[in-house]
Design a protein that fits this description.
2 domains; alpha+beta; Beta-lactamase Inhibitory Protein, Chain:B, domain 1; 5-stranded antiparallel beta sheet
């Protein structure tokens, strides 16, 4: 009976004059037959976790639009009591409406509309769209053809 020393899958005889009669002992620690299956399962679990994670925004969109006669606060501050209708028209443009209050008093109005649109879609969970529109008005009151006061709502 011969003795051999096995390193991984190759057997080396101890005595060169006798062939080894002991069975090969394979100790290949680098070969693990379940490794590809474990890698596949790990990848599938990772993909499933990402797909089912709430709050993962995939698509979002938003928009902002102003229409009508928008008057900023800084522009409104330039209109002081005593200025003429011509000055106001030059600064703000033509009003949306003109309302006589009595024979000597008149109120002009400029109206603008601000629209906001936003939407978001969450992967496999929900979809949401928000639309809002706000009307803003600027008023100028004239008494005897000159500004008596100006304000916004």
């Amino acid at each position: 009976m011969g003795f051999g020393l096995s390193i991984w899958s190759r057997t080396y005889p101890v005595a060169a004059h006798r062939p080894p009669t002991t069975p090969k002992i394979a100790m290949n620690c680098f070969h693990f037959p379940l490794a590809p299956m474990v890698r596949r399962m790990t990848a599938l679990v990772g993909i499933a976790t990402l797909a089912l994670t709430p709050g993962c925004v995939i698509v979002s969109d938003s928009g902002h639009d102003v229409s009508g006669s928008f008057v900023s606060r800084s522009t409104l501050e330039q209109i002081e009591p005593g200025v003429t209708k011509g000055y106001v028209t030059t600064l703000l443009g033509d009003p949306t409406s003109q309302t006589p209050v009595d024979g000597l008093t008149e109120v002009w109005r400029w109206t603008s509309y601000e629209s906001r649109n936003s939407s978001a879609k969450v992967f496999l969970l929900l979809s949401d769209t928000n639309r809002s529109q706000v009307a803003r008005s600027t008023f100028v009151e004239f008494a005897d053809g000159v500004v008596s006061k100006a304000w916004q709502d």
